[in-house]
UniProtKB/TrEMBL annotation:
GO terms for biological process: ATP synthesis coupled electron transport. The chain crosses the membrane at residues 12-30, 35-55, 67-90. It is a multi-pass membrane protein. It catalyses: a quinone + NADH + 5 H(+)(in) = a quinol + NAD(+) + 4 H(+)(out). InterPro entries: NADH_UbQ_OxRdtase_chain4L/K (IPR001133), NUOK/Mnh_C1-like (IPR039428). This is NADH-quinone oxidoreductase subunit K. The keyword Transport applies. Keywords: Cell membrane, Membrane, NAD, Oxidoreductase, Quinone, Translocase, Transmembrane, Transmembrane helix, Transport.
């Protein structure tokens, strides 16, 4: 496994991570659906996780992989809480567009 990662090259992992992060930023900035924005944030998080794993494998250090493991555990909890909030908003407002969320101000 380690041999395969070294054959591909760290530059390709960096390029893929940057592309994924840019896709996530585009989704956050230009989409109006809260679920799509939420998924875009998760894509950005996974791009950073990919970069951590690539660098930790490149430097033959397991700290980046351990950090990604805990980051994925926190992301799973974040997804559960975020989707619960979105379901609650949908039940109250009937829509989950970002424009309707401005009405929730106190």
């Amino acid at each position: 496994m380690n041999n395969i990662l070294n054959q591909i090259g760290i530059e390709n992992y960096i390029f893929l991570s940057v592309i994924l992060f840019c896709i996530g930023v585009f989704g956050v900035l230009y989409r109006r659906n809260a679920i799509i924005v939420f998924m875009s944030i998760e894509i950005m998080l996974n791009a950073v996780n990919l970069l951590f794993v690539a660098f930790s494998t490149y430097h033959q250090d397991a700290q980046g992989q351990v950090f990604v493991f805990f980051s994925m555990a926190v992301a799973a909890a974040e997804v559960a809480v975020g989707l619960a909030i979105l379901v609650s908003i949908f039940r109250n407002l009937g829509s989950i567009t970002i424009d309707n969320l401005k009405n929730l101000k106190g």
